[in-house]
Every structure is written in structure tokens, then in C-alpha cells.
Amino acid sequence: MTPDDRALVDRFLDMMAAEAGSSRHTLAAYRNDLERAAETVGSLGAATADNLSRLGAAWQELSPATVARRSAALRRFFGFLIDDGLRKDDPSDALPRPRFERPLPRILESGEVERMFEAAEDRAASGELIAVRNLALLELLYGSGLRATELVSLPRGAVRPGQPFMMVRGKGSKDRLVPISSRAEAAVARWLEIAPGGTIWLFPSGKKHLSRVRLFQIVQTMAADAGIGPERVSPHVLRHAFATHLLSGGADLRVLQSLLGHADIATTQIYTHVDSARLVELVNARHPLATRGR
Fold it and tell me: For a surface tag, which of 141, 142, 180, 189 has the fewest beta carbons within 10 Å of its beta carbon?
């Protein structure tokens, strides 16, 4: 990447951090995608539509999702250049536009989630510190639909007695209200009675909070305790279960979008496909005509 391009990318990332509230990980991903594009295009700042058209061939071995992400990064970069008056034309129409079907999220049946709770409650009944904490983690993951990062970074006073909602800072540093069930409130209150003091975090680990990797391991261990294959379960799978089971119970799609913190309703609509797929499966398995011969 040329020095001029590097300066432009730095300005672009400064804008993304200040105006869009992008996280450190998101900024690093943008920088990497732009640098990889520059290897083929040459100068990004002076790139033409013909230059960008070469990316399709250069990226043909990449997955459709990766191509889509890199193209999106470049479109946003060129949009920034135009907004800041650094160039007048937008060559991004020449970028690859891969077509791919978005995979349906993995989910757990409500009975499987119930088994996880039963196993976690049995362990927490002993009063063991780790078991009590894990039950509180599970209640918040499934009961509030939190992302892993949102959960582990909760401040100690996030869940307040008698308040059915709490404020969560999600992607892009956007705040949203999420529901707190009476079960989750009770589990967190029990955890706070025995949790280590002298920390600002609800789920501390050493001098910091619990890591996302450790949360992933905890959730898989709880799945194994319930007789569920650990490879099928993760914090995000429990978030998917929260959304799917709410929708199955009659929740409004716009309400679900707000609870999950999705910027685009299209992201939330994936759960309608999940629910439809389950309904078709149910009809094929249970409807009287399903077993009737032709």
C-alpha cells in the first residue's frame, strides 16, 4: 500500500471510530480488507472501475462471505472519499457482488435448553461459586439474548433489583434495553451474594472480566452436563434460541429486532425462515396426510 493510500485509510478508520463507533476489531478488519485489495488494485485512492474489476478474478478462491465483506469495506471507503471531497467519482459499481444463501442459524429445541437449565440448577444447588455464576450466565444468555461480548462486559450493577430491563452497550457502541426475567434477576442476585468484591465487573476474572473464549468453554461444558453435544452449543446458539423461541411464541419481528440490537430488519428476518423450516418439518412428520400413500 502506498504512503498516500495508508494516510487515506488512517483517515477513514478515524472516521469509522469517531462517527460510527466501530470497535477495535472492526477497524482492524477494515484495514486488513483494504490492504488485501490494494495488493491487486494498486493505489486505492486513484483506483478506477477497470482496476476494481480485476478483484473478481483475484478473489475467486475466497468464500462468498469474504468477498462480500471485502467489497463492502471498499464501498464504504470510496463513500468516505466522496463525502470528504477527496474524489468525485465512485468506481465501486465494478466490485464483485457474490450471490450466496445466508445459512440458517443453529438453534436448540426448547426441551434441550430446559435440560441445560436443569443440569445447571442441580449444580448451583450446592452453592459452589462457579456453579452459581454459570447459572447466572445461562439465565442472561438465553433469557435476554445477549451477545457474548455484551454479557462478559456487563458492569457489576447492570441488573438492578425490581427493574425488568437493563441497559446494554452493543455493536457500534449503541445502547439498548433488554429484558431481565425474574429467574435471571434471582440468579444474578444469588451470584452477587458470593461473587468476589473489589471489581467493576459482574463476571470478573482476575483483574478483568470473563473472556469470550472462557464463556464459550463454560457454555459447552454446561451442554455436556445436560447430555447435549458440546459442538452444537455456543453463546451465539443460545442467542439464536432466545430469538427463535420468542418468535415461535408470537413475538413481533420489530420488537425482536430491538431486543437483539439489529441495525437492519433483514438480519432479524432470518429467524422467520428458521421458524418456517420447523413448521414444514412438523407438518411432514405429524400431519395425517404425511403417512398416506399415493
Answer: 189
Q: Please state the domain extents for the chain.
A: 3-94, 110-283
* Active-site residue, 88 included: no
Q: Looking at 70, 115, 147, 240, which residue is catalytic?
A: 147
| Active-site position among 171, 176, 183, 190 | 171
To the query of whether residue 262 is one of the catalytic residues in this protein, the response is: yes
254 has catalytic annotation:
no
Q: What is the pLDDT of residues 232-247, one digit of tens each?
A: 899 988 888 877 767 6
Known catalytic membership, residue 273: no
Architecture category of domain 3-94 in CATH: Orthogonal Bundle (1.10)
Given the residues 36, 209, 239, 245, select the one marked as catalytic.
Answer: 239
pTM as predicted: 0.58
Q: What class, spelled out in words, does domain 110-283 have in CATH? A: mainly alpha
Q: 224-281, pLDDT tens digit by residue? A: 999 999 988 999 888 888 777 676 666 655 656 656 665 555 555 565 555 555 545 5
Rounded alpha-carbon distances, angstroms, from residue 127 to 34, 76, 223: 51, 51, 20
Work out whether strand 204-205 and strand 175-179 pair parallel, antiparallel, or are unpaired: unpaired
